[in-house]
Specification:
157 residues; mainly alpha; 5 helices
Length: 157
């Protein structure tokens, strides 16, 4: 029978012959022009993929910047409304606006809120006995002068 060394040598020779035969068949089936076209197509596909990846990365970077701008604009509007509320409304409305937001006002708005003290309206301030306030129905009316209505003047003429 055959020895192990002879079988290994025959296997190696058959393997080399099969490799050469495979290379020859692949060269004859795919001519160099077609291989070159396939390589160019592969190269173009890689370039398109790289460009697409760059476009996607740029799109997401721009989207992130726009979202940051939107967030900053929202914060600016909120700060503007909060500072306007401090100046134009009473403390209760201002506190409710702050509670509705993120409670991060600008430094000057927060200082203004801290300094603001709620006082009763001046009309409700203590008065001397017998005086009426400006919201009283009798304020500014003098009972000694009779008031004539515009209809009374038409009949007298």
């Amino acid at each position: 029978m055959f020895s192990l060394e002879v079988l290994i040598m025959i296997s190696a020779i058959v393997f080399c012959i099969g490799g050469l035969l495979g290379a020859f068949i692949s060269r004859s089936m795919f001519p160099p022009e077609q291989q070159k076209a396939l390589e160019e197509s592969l190269s173009n596909s890689r370039k398109e993929l790289d460009q697409y990846q760059k476009d996607v990365a740029q799109h997401f970077a721009e989207t992130a910047q726009l979202v940051n701008n939107l967030t900053q604009s929202y914060k600016n509007v909120h700060d503007h409304l909060a500072s306007g509320a401090l100046q134009l409304t009473n403390a209760e409305i201002t506190q409710s606006m702050i509670a509705a937001g993120d409670q991060k006002l600008g430094l000057e708005a927060q200082e203004s809120l801290d300094e603001q003290q709620v006082q009763a309206p001046r009309d409700w301030a203590p008065k001397a006995p017998g005086q009426t306030g400006t919201l009283s129905e009798e304020f500014g009316l003098d009972d000694s002068i009779e008031q004539h209505s515009p209809n009374d003047n038409k009949h007298s003429a």
